[in-house]
Amino acid sequence: MLYAPIVIIAIFSFTESKVLGNWTGFSTELYESLFSGGVNNSLIDAIKNTFIIAFVAASVSTLLGTVAAIGINDLRYRKRKVVNFVNNIPILNPDIITGISLFLLFITLGVTQGYATVILAHITFCTPYVVLSVMPRLTQMNPNIYEAALDLGATPMQAMRRVIIPEIRPGMISGFILAFTLSIDDFAVTIFTNGTDGLETLSTYIYADARKGGLTPELRALSTIILVVVLVLLIVVNYRSHRQAKRAEEMQQQLSNKKLSRR
Amino acid sequence: MRNLVKFFSRRRSWSLPYVLFMAVFIVVPLVLIMLYAFQSKDGGFSLENFERFVNQPEAANTFIYSIGIALITTIICLVLGYPAAYILSRLKPSTATLVVMLFILPMWINVLVRTLATVALFDFLSLPLGEGALIFGMVYNFLPFMIYPIYNVLQKMDHSLIEAAEDLGATPRQVFTRVVFPLSMPGIVSGIMMVFMPTISTFAIAELLTMNNIKLFGTTIQENINNGMWHYGAALSLIMLIIIGITSLFTDSSEEGANEGGLL
User: Fold this and answer.
1) Which of A23-27, A94-98, B52-56, B251-255 has the lowest mean pLDDT?
2) How far apart are CA B214 and CA B66, in angstroms?
3) Nearest Cβ partner for A2 among B106, B197, B204
4) Could you report the predicted ipTM of this complex, rounded to two decimals?
5) Which of A44, A92, A195, A250 has the fewest CB atoms in 10 Å of its CB?
6) Cα separation of A200 and A118, whole Å?
């Protein structure tokens, strides 16, 4: 049931019909025109903008969030609590409120809205997620390891690079992925901060398109491609972690076998 | 310069850039919403925006209607999501991971595209668009947010507790009502939050699913902001913020550390 609408998109991406839900025979026309530039430039621009914004916002968020998490983790209890509370605000706030509040900020400061404001807005709502995904790694880490590195003569910078960063890397990676997908999918914040110069991302483009009545048919092809890519990625990730778990298990078994045979 | 190096070699100080960033981009904007809400067009302090909200039946009705829709959506999500999460938590871990992924996968498609697909589905089955479609679309979009936290809690639950209850002579029904359900409460609460809060604030979804016939509160706010009525829009946003604040107060006391947002 959850998949019915998606399956419909996928099926109808193989027909030329202008309207979704109208089967006019099998064709790969939509895919061809998506790749050969048969669609209007504004869709291509929107796709480009979406990915540029997502990439920049996710990168900056990961950097800012990781540095912040390391700092926050070292704060005293009281301050840490306050910072964590503020950090949670964009997560708990509905997008529309975040969008409007930033919109008001930008008009109050008199900033022209465009690329920069959208990216800043995306950083604002992505960074808290990065902080949240890095933080558990830091709190679980044995603080003595860092102290040991310092005692053994590492400078704080070296200890950071050699000890802390490797430990929190998985959190940083999942934070980045989360930020990237959040940014790609965002609509409400973007629409309030993209200004009047016609900067469109994929979601605002779709919105404008849908309001006009129809959906550019090529979007069906695009959605299907995104879905398949995500599906493959998830399967690969799943398979890899599965295999790693298995390998770890085997290693453990071998180890215990060795122990037994030594007896 | 040396002082600066010394300052930043303390890890504590590393939080400073983000604290400044948060001050500018999180705290100040929220304060601005409040300032704008209590300002009349010429800039003086006034309550006229709120008076207008109370006196204008249209906006107030939309507001109440939106809360109603959000409540219905949340209840349907809970009724559908709890059994699903329960069944999921009983599966083998590898199967469960797969099914959870299948649930999350649709969320990678843009919300608006999914919503339009729902519109197409209704067209396809020649069902009318309107309130029914609206609720269906909302449930469809937000159901995973209900299932995931409940599943998380159920999965982490200590199974020896269930066995203990059984050993002590509880019937399966009693085991559920007395042990499983109360223990899954944190998941339910965070699921309700994660469904109720976004449903009350959606705007684009409603427009598309009802051919612009039904207006939700989010749409009203957006229209006002778009038409340059920032002060009134800010006042409406503040009202929404208050509702959300109240909801999270309700839930905060019973929920400690149930993780939000971790959908990956």
Assistant:
1) B251-255
2) 10
3) B106
4) 0.78
5) A250
6) 10
CB contact under 8 A, A8 and B120: yes
CA angle B251, B253, B255 (to 5 degrees): 65
Domains and CATH numbers, chain B: 62-260 (1.10.3720.10)
Residues forming a β-bridge with A26: A15
Determine the number of helices (DSSP H) and then strands (DSSP E) in chain A. Answer: 12, 0
Q: Which of A122, A150, A131, A133 is nearest to A80 (CA)?
A: A131
Q: Where are the beta strands (DSSP E) in B47-166?
A: none
- Which of B26, B27, B47, B23 is CA-nearest to residue B37? B47
Nearest to B15 by CA among A127, A202, A14: A127
The answer to whether A120 and A183 have CB atoms below 8 angstroms apart is no
The amino acid present at A147, given as its one-letter code, is E
Q: At what angle do helices A41-73 and A77-92 cross, to 10 degrees?
A: 160
Whether residue B89 contacts residue B151, with contact meaning beta carbons closer than 8 Å, is answered with yes
End-to-end Cα, chain B, rounded Å: 42
Q: Residue A97, CB half-sphere, CA atoms under 13 Å: how many?
A: 27
Please judge whether B18 and A8 are an interchain contact, meaning their C-beta atoms are less than 8 angstroms apart.
no
Where residue B40 falls among pLDDT bands split at 50, 70, 90?
Answer: confident
Q: Rounded to whole angstroms, what are the CA distances from A160 to A58, A70, B237?
A: 22, 10, 43
pTM, two decimal places: 0.80
Closest chain B CA to residue A233: B105
Tell me which residues of chain B, numbers 49 to 108, contact chain A at a CB-CB cutoff of 8 Å: 94, 97-98, 101-103, 105-108
Q: What is the pLDDT of residues B88-129, one digit of tens each?
A: 888 887 788 777 777 777 777 777 777 877 887 787 777 777
Q: What is the pLDDT of residue A161?
A: 84
Q: Does B114 reach chain A within 8 Å, measured CB to CB?
A: yes
Q: Does B137 touch chain A (CB under 8 A)?
A: no
Distance, in Å, from the CA atom of A243 to the CA atom of A89, rounded to the nearest integer, reads 38
Closest-CA distance, A263 to chain B, in angstroms, reads 35
Number of H helices, E strands in chain B: 15, 0
The answer to whether A104 and A167 are in contact (CB under 8 A) is no
Q: Closest CB to A234: pick one of B16, B101, B260.
A: B101
Give which of B22, B101, B123 to mutate to test A binding, by max A Cβ within 10 Å.
B22
